[in-house]
Amino acid sequence: MEENRFFRFVWRFNGIILMIVGILAIGVLAFAGYQFYAEFTRDRVISNVVNIEKNSEVEEDWQLGYMREVQGTPYIAIPLNSEQSYARSSYGSKSSSSPRNYLFINSTTNEQYWLFNQNTFLISNTKMLYGPEGDNKEKKVQAILYQIIKEDTNKDNRLTKNDSETIAISQYDGRGYKELIEGIDRIIGHRAVNDNTLLIIYQKKGIGYSAHVRLSDFTLQNERELPKVTP
Asked: How far is the CA of 22 from the CAs of 11, 14, 18, 31, in angstroms?
């Protein structure tokens, strides 16, 4: 009799344990399912992506970004960003913020003008160029280097870093804008050689190149293909 009671107690105890384990398992699965659903349906914020799909319902607003000082000059540069929102599927949506132009302002005279007279390009990167020596905190910006995406070269209805880029340059105040090299894959790097010469290294159609840019007139010089690796 005592033995039967003991076994009934063990069975009940095991049953309670199995019930608790089952409830915990259901809870874990429910939480994981909720997390997956929330991740799948949440709004995603991305940058440097411009949706140009003609049949897509894209809501687009224009916002001025954060002010950038052009060091050593009276000028400031303010990006004009396109804020796009669009559905990516039946659930959730995407939103993107992408620089499309720059407003230059002379803080002394309050003269104002845009880098471009239209806002159709994507400016994927902007670099202030200084001289070769000294502390940048004490130096003046000599020129501004831009990476511009002008066309949807991979035909995915987006302007992104996956498209071919154009290397362009302007004076420190945004004047004298000039496109140096078109159709590049990416910029590998750049370095000031002296006060009038910039070395840029880049890849185009899978081949590496280096070239000099004369900063006095933005002339591309001495372009050379990088040596290939010998097996």
From this structure: 16, 12, 6, 14
Domain extent for 202: 44-225
Going by pLDDT thresholds of 50, 70 and 90, the confidence category of residue 57 is confident
**Same-domain pairing of 172 and 193:** yes
Span 101-157, pLDDT tens digits: 999 999 999 999 999 999 999 999 999 998 776 555 568 899 999 999 999 999 988
Q: What pTM value is reported for the model?
A: 0.74
In a domain, 62, yes or no: yes
- Record the tokens describing residue 63, joined without a space: 């916002």
CA distance 203 to 209: 6
* Residues 16 and 121 both lie in one domain: no
Sequential DSSP letters for 123-190? EEEEEEE--SSS-GGGS---EEEEEEE-S-TT-SSEESTTS-EEEEEEETTS-S-EEEEEEESEEEEE
Residues 169 and 144 in one domain: yes
Q: How confident is the model at residue 43 (pLDDT cuts 50, 70, 90)?
A: low
The pLDDT value recorded for residue 89 is 47
133-152 CB burial, b ≥16 within 10 A, e <16:
eeeeeeeebbbbbbbbbbbb
Task: Count Cβ atoms within 10 A of the Cβ of residue 228 and give its class: 0-12 exposed, 13-18 middle, 19 or more buried.
Answer: exposed
